[in-house]
Amino acid sequence: MIIKSAKYLTSVVDSNNILNDGIDIAFVGRSNVGKSSLINSLTNQKKLCKTSSLPGRTRMINYFLINNSFRFVDLPGYGYAKAGKQNKVIWANIMEDYLLKSNSIKHVFMLIDSRIEPTELDIKMLNFLFYYQIPTTIVATKTDKLPKSKIMSYIQKCASRLSVGKDNIVPYSSETHWGKDKLLGIIENAISNI
Ligand SMILES: Nc1nc2c(ncn2[C@@H]2O[C@H](COP(=O)(O)OP(=O)(O)OP(=O)(O)O)[C@@H](O)[C@H]2O)c(=O)[nH]1
Ligand SMILES: [Mg+2]
Questions:
Q1: What pTM was estimated for this model as a whole?
Q2: Is there an atom of ligand 1 within 6 Å of 31 CB?
């Protein structure tokens, strides 16, 4: 599929305002894993989605309208712990509300960092998605930071930790756009299966 247009639609901070009509492709994953960068890479835009080297940048649900027909949904990252227990944002309620309440989700891309073993929260997230039978693809980001010869062994480690086959993980780089055609194909399938 070709993404011809992508524009910012709206942001939602209150679960009651989650959009319930239409078609959503959502992006979840640990804070700082590269969700916003992936959306920019898929849409060929540099600044559609704000990215930051500081974790916890995206605190709300951001909706983007793609090809005037379906939406990309940038969800708040989980697992971000600022100094001090009170400030710990382990699991954003609005993200869970979205995944449980939205009638629009057609597919979820769950991002992990290809260089880092998936955390307990990643495992919890994946089990949550499987439990609610939400169609999900795991994407391993930032592969450009690994030597080419090591990428597949890192992906295998991530797969073992998540108890899935390594073919269930798509390696990606938002710098080089490696993996983009594969993800666009998955999106095309997800939105045509309606
Ligand atoms: N080299 C490289 N850097 C990446 C890649 N993807 C993301 N980054 C960098 O990682 C940092 C975090 O990326 P974001 O896209 O803001 O991550 P996020 O998941 O949206 O983060 P939150 O909104 O905080 O949950 C930024 O400095 C990005 O430039 C990638 O594929 N390769
Ligand atoms: Mg973000």
A1: 0.93
A2: yes
Instruction: Name the closest-CA residue to atom 5, ligand 1.
Output: 142
Ligand 1 in reach of 36 Cβ (< 6 A): yes
Query: Does 174 sit in the ligand 1 pocket, CB within 6 Å?
Result: yes
> How do the pLDDT tens digits run along the chain, 194 residues long?
999 999 999 999 888 999 999 999 999 999 889 999 999 999 999 889 877 666 555 578 999 999 999 999 999 888 765 544 544 555 667 888 999 999 999 999 999 999 999 999 999 999 999 999 999 999 999 999 999 999 999 999 999 999 999 999 999 999 999 999 999 999 999 999 65
What is the full DSSP assignment across 51-98?
A: --SSTT---SEEEEEETTTEEEEEPPPB-B--SSGGG-BSS-HHHHHH
Fold of 6-192: Rossmann fold (3.40.50)
